[in-house]
């Protein structure tokens, strides 16, 4: 299977990923090779990685962090930076990030800032990280419950996608990644969207590669998110606010990223219908598809008011305005749309119906 060429690196899949990793590290003469894992990937994924590479090169040290969005903050970075320093890491060291989007975001940020930058390789182990975090070079951590407020855009040496890691995941985690795949269809490819709508196999190699290719096409045109790359944020303006609110509210069920943006895509689909001419039939199709794959979340008026208040922290904001990505039709997205606040409540009412 061919690799997918991004701006300064390539995404390799399956057997090609294994061979490329072995060859790259063997010839690169790194002073140290470090591996960052979390509790889950240490147990379920690290043994497989070690088996694939042990004959070619040695791992000098492995560090384990706690899994979950609630640990994606600067205090965890401090622990990893200290570990790299204690283990004699220098500017010729390599950090391999083995985990989901939380770990690759944080690990990429740590590598980008340690000694003013060391090489890193991402090996995503969740469907979400394979189709989303694998391309684009976004690294960073949360500020409190506010997602991805601190970070840099910096590219890894390569990204290695091994779909066999998906067998270690619960179905809920697979569905979370599937939400991003559905988003790729909504913003860029109606045919792909329709092929996924009734899909029950959430992560085939072909659909993973298609989603990576769609995101890569967008990111290659706009590496630093000044224009078209913003379309990748469809569903994320309200979705991130919902995710942050649920994470910080003890009596609310914590939502995985994909679960929160699934809600966000229904809400922002409604805004698209009201402001950008998305047809009523397309809006209903979007709502039915996501509610077919995801349970409906419950929000009362106080919840909604708090979620709306969190919008002011969104990264896409400019000059005090909250900027949305909306759909003119399925497969065609537009950016930098300002939304009257009364429509937020209408959108939640539509979601509840």
From TrEMBL:
GO terms for molecular function: 3-dehydroquinate synthase activity; metal ion binding; nucleotide binding. It comes from the Bacteria. One of its GO terms (cellular component) is cytoplasm. InterPro entries: Dehydroquinate_synthase (IPR050071), DHQ_synth_AroB (IPR016037), DHQ_synth_fam (IPR030963), DHQS/DOIS_N (IPR030960), DHQS_C (IPR056179). PANTHER family: 3-DEHYDROQUINATE SYNTHASE. This is 3-dehydroquinate synthase. Gene3D superfamilies: 3.40.50.1970, Dehydroquinate synthase-like - alpha domain. Pfam families: DHQ_synthase, DHQS_C. Keywords: Cobalt, Lyase, Metal-binding, NAD, Nucleotide-binding, Zinc. Residues 63-175 form the 3-dehydroquinate synthase N-terminal domain. Its cofactor is Co(2+); NAD(+); Zn(2+). NCBIfam families: aroB (TIGR01357). It comes from Flagellimonas flava. Its EC number is 4.2.3.4. The lineage of its organism: Bacteria, Pseudomonadati, Bacteroidota, Flavobacteriia, Flavobacteriales.
């Amino acid at each position: 299977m061919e690799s997918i060429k991004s701006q300064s690196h390539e995404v390799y899949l399956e057997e090609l990923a294994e061979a490329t990793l072995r060859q790259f590290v063997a010839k690169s003469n790194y002073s140290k090779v470090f591996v960052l894992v979390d509790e889950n990937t240490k147990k379920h994924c690290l043994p497989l990685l070690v088996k694939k590479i042990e004959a070619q090169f040695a791992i000098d040290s492995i560090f384990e962090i706690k899994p979950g969005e609630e640990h994606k903050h600067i205090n965890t970075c401090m622990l990893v930076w200290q570990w790299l320093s204690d283990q004699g890491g220098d500017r010729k060291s390599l950090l391999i990030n083995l985990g989901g989007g939380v770990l690759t975001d944080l690990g990429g940020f740590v590598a980008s800032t340690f000694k003013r930058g060391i090489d890193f390789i991402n090996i995503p182990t969740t469907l979400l990280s394979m189709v989303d975090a694998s391309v684009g070079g976004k690294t960073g951590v949360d500020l409190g419950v506010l997602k991805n407020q601190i970070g840099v855009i910096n590219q890894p040496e390569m990204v290695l996608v091994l779909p066999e890691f998906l067998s270690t995941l619960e179905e809920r985690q697979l569905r979370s990644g599937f939400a991003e795949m559905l988003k790729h269809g909504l913003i860029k490819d109606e045919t792909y969207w329709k092929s996924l709508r009734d899909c029950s196999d959430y992560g085939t190699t072909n659909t993973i590669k298609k989603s990576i290719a769609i995101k890569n096409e967008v990111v290659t045109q706009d590496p630093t998110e000044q224009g078209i790359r913003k379309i990748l944020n469809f569903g994320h303006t309200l979705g991130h606010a919902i995710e942050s609110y649920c994470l910080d509210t003890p009596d609310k069920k914590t939502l995985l990223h994909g679960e929160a943006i699934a809600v966000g895509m229904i809400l922002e689909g409604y805004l698209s219908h009201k402001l950008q001419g998305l047809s009523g039939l397309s809006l209903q199709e979007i709502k039915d598809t996501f509610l077919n794959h995801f349970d409906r979340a419950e929000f009362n008026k106080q919840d909604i008011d708090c979620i709306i208040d969190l919008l002011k922290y969104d990264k896409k904001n400019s000059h005090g305005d909250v900027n949305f990505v909306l759909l003119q039709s399925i497969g065609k997205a537009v950016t930098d749309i300002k939304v009257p606040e009364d429509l937020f409540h209408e959108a939640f009412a539509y979601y509840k119906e």
